[in-house]
Design goal:
This protein is of the alpha+beta class. It has one helix at 2-28, and strands at residues 30-37, 41-51, 58-71, 74-75, 79-90, 95-97, 104-108, 113-116, 119-123. It has an eight-stranded antiparallel beta barrel with strand order 1-2-3-5-6-7-8-9.
């Protein structure tokens, strides 16, 4: 009886650990947005993060940026940029890290937000 209880306790602990690992990776995937403006531009920025199915900790990151330059007080037509890269998730530091250009995305746990540089993005889906 005592052995059965110990076995069930071990199974419970392992299943909780597996669920937490799954939840952290599910929380990373999604679409994140931010908006900012200053005297020189108005910017809408989107990050789309999706896991690479062949790997446990690698993610595709697609950044879509739309911006209007402001020159002499006049808003110019909207311009667009798209960048794509692959990042590895470091669970200890809660970072998505890209090695070629050194980009790091900080995951803010429990907030549905992340940071790329000084910009904070909010998860929308």
């Amino acid at each position: 009886m005592k052995a059965l209880f110990v076995f069930l306790a071990i199974v419970a602990v392992l299943s909780i650990g597996c669920n937490n690992a799954t939840k952290s990776s599910e929380n990373i995937e999604g679409t994140y947005v931010t908006h900012f403006q200053n005297e020189f531009n108005i910017t809408d920025d989107t990050l789309i993060i999706s896991s690479i199915k062949s790997s446990d900790n690698s993610y595709d990151v697609k950044r879509q940026t739309g911006f209007n330059k402001i020159r002499n007080g006049q808003q110019l037509p909207k311009e667009f940029k798209v960048a794509k890269w692959v990042s590895s998730y470091n669970s200890d530091k809660q970072l998505l890290q890209e090695t070629d250009l050194g980009r790091q995305i900080s995951i803010l746990p429990g907030t549905h937000k992340l940071k790329l540089g000084a910009s904070e993005y909010t998860k929308v889906k």
